[in-house]
Amino acid sequence: MSARENILTKLRAAPRSAPPAPDVAAYYAGTPKLTGLAALKHWAALMRAVRTEVLWVRESDWPRTLAEQVAARGIRTLLLAPSTAHGARAAAALAELAEPPLRLGFDQTIDGWKATLFNEVDAAFTRVRAGIALTGSLIAWPDEHEPRTMSLVPPIHFALFDTRTLYPDFFSAMSAENWAAGMPTNALLISGPSKTSDIQQTVAYGAHGPRELVVLAVLPDEIDLAELEADA
Amino acid sequence: MNEATLTYYPSRDFKANARAALADSNLRASFRGAMDFLMGKRAAQFPDAHELAELRKLGEAIRQKSLAKLPELLEQLEAKLTENGVTVHWAETTEEANAIVHGLIAAKGGKLAVKGKSMVSEETELNHYLEARGMTAIESDMGEYIVQLAGEKPSHIIMPAIHKTRADIARLFSEHIPGTPYTEDVDALIQIGRQALRQMYVSADVGISGVNFAIAETGTLCLVENEGNGRMCTTVPDMHIAITGIEKVIEKLSDVVPLYSLLTRSATGQPVTTYFNMISGPRRPGEKDGPREVHLVLLDNGRSQAYSDEQLRKTLQCIRCGACMNHCPVYTRIGGHAYGTVYPGPIGEIISPHMLGLENTVDLPTASSLCGACGEVCPVKIPIPEMLMRLREESVRDPHEKVAHPLRGQGAGVDKEVKLAWRLWTGLYSKPGYYRLFGWAATRLRGLTPRHQLGWTQNHVPMKPAPKTLHELMRERRKETGR
Amino acid sequence: MSQKRPPADVYFFGTCLIDVFQPQAGLDAVTLIEREGVRVHYPDAQSCCGQPAYTSGEVAAARRVARAQLDLFPEAWPIVVPSGSCAGMMKHHWPTLFAGTPDEARAKEVAGRIVEFADFLLNTLDWQPTDLGQPLTLAVHTSCSARREMNTHVNGWALIDRLANVKRVVHEREAECCGFGGVFSVRHPDIAGAMVADKAAALKDSGAAQFVTADCGCMMNINGKLAKDGDTFAGEHLATFLLKRTGGAA
Ligand code: SF4
Q1: B near A: at least 3 beta-carbon pairs less than 8 Å apart
Q2: Is residue C25 part of a domain?
Q3: Which of A30, B85, B308, B400 has most Cβ atoms within 10 angstroms of its Cβ?
Q4: Residue B156, CB-side half-sphere exposure with 13 Å CA sphere
Q5: Domain edge (last residue) among C123, C148, C179
Q6: Residue B73 falls within a domain, yes or no?
Q7: How large is the ipTM?
Q8: Is the distance from CB of B387 to CB of B315 less than 8 angstroms?
């Protein structure tokens, strides 16, 4: 018999009784939900606590903010997805900088340019799918335009986040979007830049992936910036 | 040559290891400090006792349901993963698991594997296996990397290098990584590690990882981490091999939400880790990165023994958060290496006997004062003290006694003298007449109390009976008061 | 607070360690209870709850010894136990120990009447002492099983806090085990020794003049260690302490 059959046979031979069924939905229905301004504040506070730079922007002006941040960091090579609307807008804004960075697209599979990707790209710009208020997280579903390594390999990750997609918690996000019906090859929660505490419990950022995570958090017009940052 | 007879079980030397660890004041100070730190961080994550209680109940129920349906869920997981393009392999023993991994790498003509954190691959001693066959396996989790450079094993399941000081690591790096100056600056050390490891991701033929949760409903492998090395290993090389225990499967995607929350908050006191990586298949047509091949190796290695008994099955509820070790007064004092097993501390005491047999781990279930701190913090409510007592029972059970599901090494702890002592004790304490006589004699002969009482007098003055037992005092009192 | 009407009669289960090594603690607990107008009955045939065997995996032995206790409490009175871990054994583990045996129902019935001494004094008798002692700083150690199975630490604190002249101080890592654990301290003397050394040091460093505990095993463990080191700092049983403070010095 195969290992598979042996294992399954052993497991099936064991006495089994049905334990009480857990009700995850009922549990989360009963937990308090952060909404509106409170949700945004909580999300930002948690992200900042793990050294994420959260920049509040509007739909009209985020490309300019991105360009400023790129310029301020002296970034020379930046990876983005010109095939997407936001990627094209970003590329255009960057092109107008006095010293525009080299704007690379992820045009070919990783296999041909791993070393370049690791050694020569300073930053990447991607859009994220949604956010989670309770834990201060971003949700990313990498795809052919913005592959997995864009949010992982370059030392700086700029993430464009539409705050209207901020969910109170992970459970709300996956049920509202019905993830169970079909998962992408890779889905991620990202809560800050890469870090480690493996040396004497001392936190150090930039362990393997991004050293910096900069979130351009796009606010709808009705949200007042002053209120958002008040006693934050 | 018979390899099995040559296998060395360091857990057989538990007492000597523990003694050595206790004598090492640096080691004790660093574990004490680290455990205090982790306990504080966890407590800060659960300010609301009611929320914690409810969440633990939910976590327990999810894990128990998953185990109740384990064979069906494993089949569902396999079917879903296969549909998603992931190849599933099954291994009953560590040797089988290693052979599968080696075969997969060899088939691609690969030489270099880069590894994310995987305690199951520690169980199988995969690195050693691959190296013996001409391959190189590099640990990429910072803690694991440090431990590998030192030629050691992890001393904690979450923080593998918790026994190492900054100075130790500075020395290791400067000696082992070419061109590295000696520095004790943590940021600088991490950057050195980063540089060394990032080159490995580029050149590795294969990435190997563990799995925190395997979701049957969607065929998804979940990895929990802060560093991003797990993402690197599962994304950059052309092949990804995940290896995990058969108990890691859960039924629904939504089941992962409370478990993930319990895991990060209990383990390191974080509301969430930096990355929660959900992998549901290899690179699809059109996608530009991700491995072209993904494999999952499901390992038994004694888990089905724990499964065969409904009480011991609870052992498999574990989500490997390490909170039980962080809160264990024994682990805190002796550290992880003394146990001589891959999983140290309370979880190690209850899982290792299934993996290695009671004959090789007989001291482990006894290495607890049953204080209950582990069971109190376990996020999935494993009654660890109850498991310990049950394992003690099996280890002193007559090896020839027929039971429904005998454990490997049943009776390994039987000691004739101790058995005799318990028989005497039972005789005395279950017969009031004998017991009264014994009490009378013990108190009257108190002057003869031995000066050496087994292990007791190593730390204590001898136990000396009082001049009169409570039985006598109460009898006298009854006479006085007439009641 | 769950105050029940005080019963007229209770049973007292002295425990094996108190019986032979610390009988005065048992006697003091009896005195305290009787002083509150409750008749205390001490079944003479009692010995041990079976815990030492139970925690050693000698389940059959534990069952035999525990079974010998089951018939000793025929009336429906509460059974007061002056040791948290033994009370926990009887209350929480006897039902499991006898599960599936003919004694199961009886064991459950008896278990249902077990009440730990501090719990009884506080919550059933609502003990209201007049503290006659000199001002004193006191540390408290609670046995782990008593803490986790019986909530004894809260009851012990509450009783002590009713003494006007006693200042209760918290010692470092108060919730941590003293390293007794029955046979654990004999089987793993190196580890247990490190644990009791830390516990003894923490109690001493708390600034307390002495400590108390409601568990005889812990008390013998910590006192035995302190005495071995030639220390004069020591602890006594909660019952002894409470009685002394309230004029009933034995
Ligand atoms: S036994 Fe419980 S506390 Fe220990 S590692 Fe497993 S889940 Fe965590």
Answers
A1: yes
A2: yes
A3: B308
A4: 30
A5: C123
A6: no
A7: 0.97
A8: yes
pLDDT digits (tens, 9 = 90+) for B276-298: 999 999 999 999 999 999 999 99
Closest C-alpha to A209, from B232, C183, C202, B369:
B232
The domain in which residue B461 lies consists of 432-481
For residue C73, the enclosing domain spans 9-123
Distance C138 CA to ligand 1 centre (A): 35
Considering the domain boundaries, does residue B338 fall inside one? no
Q: Both C32 and C110 in a single domain?
A: yes
Which chain A residues are Cβ-neighbours of B202 within 8 angstroms?
114-115, 118
Assess whether C136 and C236 both reside in one domain.
yes
Between positions 90 and 149 of C, the ones with CB within 8 A of B are 144-145, 147-149
Assign A19 a pLDDT band (cuts: 50, 70, 90).
Answer: confident
Task: Name the class of domain A34-229.
Answer: alpha beta
Final residue belonging to a domain, choices C79, C101, C123: C123
Query: In this structure, what token pair is assigned to residue B360?
Result: 């090789």
Domains contained in chain B, number: 1
Does residue C140 sit within a domain?
Answer: yes
Residue B1 has a pLDDT of 34
Does the pLDDT at position B12 exceed 90? no
The closest residue, in CA terms, to atom 8 on ligand 1 is B321
Tens of pLDDT, residue by residue over B201-252, are 999 999 999 999 999 999 999 999 999 999 999 999 999 999 999 999 999 9
**Shortest CA gap C52–chain B (Å):** 10
Q: Look at residue C153 in the predicted model and tell me its pLDDT.
A: 86
CB contact under 8 A, B90 and A2: yes
Say if residues B250 and B213 touch (Cβ distance below 8 Å): yes
What are the φ and ψ backbone dihedral angles of C108, each rounded to 5 degrees? Answer: -65, -40
**Distance between CA atoms of residues B432 and B291, nearest Å:** 73
Among B200, B288, B300, B316, most A C-beta atoms within 10 A, so best to mutate, is B288
From the list B90, B282, B307, the residue facing A14 with the nearest CB is B307
- What pLDDT is recorded for position C150? 77
CB of A137 within 8 Å of a chain B CB? The answer is yes
Please state, in angstroms and as integers, the Cα–Cα distance from residue B362 to each residue in B357, B359, B420, following that order. 8, 6, 19
Give all chains having 3 or more CB-to-CB distances under 8 Å with chain B.
A, C
Residue A183, chain B, CB below 8 Å: the answer is yes
- Contact between residue B215 and residue B253 where contact means Cβ atoms under 8 Å apart: yes
User: Is residue C23, in this structure, part of any structural domain at all?
Assistant: yes
Residue B413 domain-assigned? no
Assess whether pLDDT exceeds 70 at residue C85: yes
pLDDT of res. B10: 75
Beta carbons within 10 angstroms of residue C161's beta carbon? 11
Number of domains in chain C: 2
In the predicted structure, residue C1 carries a pLDDT above the cut 50: no
Residue C116 shares a structural domain with residue C214: no
Q: Is the CB of B382 under 6 A from ligand 1?
A: yes
Among candidates B113, B117, B146, which has minimal Cα distance to B130?
B113
Per the CB < 8 Å rule, is C64 touching B426?
yes
User: Which residue reads 């805190």 in tokens?
Assistant: B332
Answer yes or no: is C114 within a domain. yes
